[in-house]
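Dear support,

I submitted the protein below through the web form. The confirmation email said the job was done, but the results page showed an empty box. After a refresh the structure appeared. I'm attaching both so you can tell me whether what I see now is the final result or a partial one.
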Amino acid sequence: MMAAVTGVLVVVSGHTAAAAPLAHTQFSPLSSSPEPQGVQAAGAELADGVTGAVRWSRQANTRAPMGSITKVMTALVVINEGNLDRPVTVPGGIIAYDNKYGASTANLVPGEVLTARQLLYALLLPSGCDAAYTLADAYGPGQGAFIGKMNGTAARLGLRNTHFTDPSGLPAPDGYSTYSTPADLVALGRHAMGLPVFRDIVRQPTYHVAPGPANRDHVWNTTNRLVRDYPGTTGIKTGSTDAAGTCLLFEAVRAGVPLIGVVLHSSPDDDGVAAADAQRMLTWGYGPIVGALPLSAQLMLR
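What the results page shows now:
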C-alpha cells in the first residue's frame, strides 16, 4: 500500500539517489492506522528487526547527513578487526580535532591508556568524538586508512548510498560529505545489532571505568533517551550536526517483536523531537494489539 505525505529531505548536493515516493507504508499487522502520525523527521524508516521488511518509510533512498550515527560504522570496523582488549593510547590529536568542531567528547585525556573495548563504550554512549579519533588512529592505522575501511565495509554490506569522510560524522570537509539514507542506516543498524559485543554496549544507560595506573575515572551516560524513556529499547545511536539536524537510529523489542528504525533531521537542534518521532513510530508499529497488553507482559516476551 502506498501513502503520500508532505515533507522534503534536503538532498546532498551532487549525490541524489534514485527517485523515491515521499512516503511508503506497508500496513503493520499489529496496527490499525495506515501510518504513524506526527513524525517530524524529513527522512525515516521503520522495519522488522529480524527480516528487514519495511513497515513504513519517508524518503528512504534520499541521501542526507546523519551526524554521529556514523559511529555505528566506526564501531563495526573496530569490532570486525578484533583484539578488543588491546591497550590503546589516546593521541594528542584529539585536542585540535575536538576544538575545531566543538565536538561531543568522552573527556578523554591525551596519553591515558584504555582498552579498545572501553573506547567503544566511550564512542557509543556519550558519543565521544575523541574516542572515534582514537580508535581510527589505532585501527587504521591513521585516519585516512580507517575511513577507507569504513567505506569498504559499507560497500561489502551493499550500502550503495552511504559514504564516510570522518569517523565521527563531523562536517569534514563539509556538512554533507558524510551521508547515508534511511534505508541504508536501518540495514547498517540491523547488522550491528546482530553483533553481541555491539548490542551489549548500546543497551546500557551508563558505563563506569574505574581509575587505573594509566587512565582516569570515567562515567559515560548514553545520549539515547529511549534507553531510559521507552521500555523495551535495545539501542542504538543518536546523531546531530548543523546540516544533519537531530537524528536517531533505534531498536526496541516488545511482545517478542523487534522493530528497528531511523529518523533524520527531526529538528534543527532538539534531540527530544527525534526521540519523540522514534516513539511515535514504535507505538504505531506495535499497534493497539501489543499496546493493550500490560507493559510487564510486553517486556517479558522480549
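Response: this is the final, complete result; the empty box was a page-load delay. The chain is about 35% helix and 20% strand.
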